What we know:
Mean pLDDT is about 85; it is low at about 35-40. The protein folds into two domains: about 40-125, Cytochrome Bc1 Complex, Chain D, domain 2, CATH 1.10.760; about 130-240, Cytochrome Bc1 Complex, Chain D, domain 2 (Orthogonal Bundle). It has helices at about 1-10, 10-55, 60, 80-90, 110-125, 130-135, 140-150, 155, 180-190, 205-220, 230-259; strands at about 165, 170. It contains eleven helices and two strands; from the N terminus they run ααααααααββααα.
Amino acid sequence: MSSLTARRRHPAAILLVLLLGLVITGGLYAALAPKNADAAPDNSKTVAAGQKLFQSNCASCHGLDAAGGNGGPSLVGVGAAAVDFQVGTGRMPLANPGVQAQRGPVQFSSEEISQLSAYVASLGPGPSIPSKDLTSGGGDIAKGGELFRVNCAMCHNFAGSGGALTRGKFAPKLTDVSGQHIYEAMLTGPQSMPVFNNTNLTPQDKKDIVSFLMNVKTETSPGGWSLGNLGPVPEGLFAWTIGIGMLIGIAVWLGKKAA
């Protein structure tokens, strides 16, 4: 009986168990490895395609290695979100240099924008393109409105209608901007806009702000004609020009009628 127990506890049995475990692990790795192997070439192809697009459309300003030059800033470390915003809103490629890059027709397809974004992202770590669950609404609208009024309304107006800045610059209106591009603008801080990273505004805070702006687009004006939601200036102008003008006209008409 003791000899049988000794054979069961022989070191060779432990070695056999270890070898069996290695065989099983190797088999699992072999089964899963092809999926991972396929992902890398696809990404490298996307980056390579983006590099070609960059060199033929962007390198004249940003340099062949995207390190800057000829008036264009370095793009190393700006991340995919910055490229998706600038190119996806038609601000880049910049048609004419000016005080501020303005929104225009988009020059690239969605696939080409993804390729350009992947190439710039490969140059250095930076903000990535946000996921759909953060940019499609569904957040706290009331909290988003409060955050927007505290952090954004001084430039973009309380309802996102835009406003003038110094030296010929302006804060664009946000009522016709997608949730993804609004989120990316907060992440990257284009033009004169400050960067709202995840320390300043958490991803949930940004989602709430996007949800508030999406609600503003569809919300009706309870007071009647919104006058572009530009605040008291157009309302006062309307009162002085139209309202008082009508009162003067009525007074003149009554005076003529009495005469």
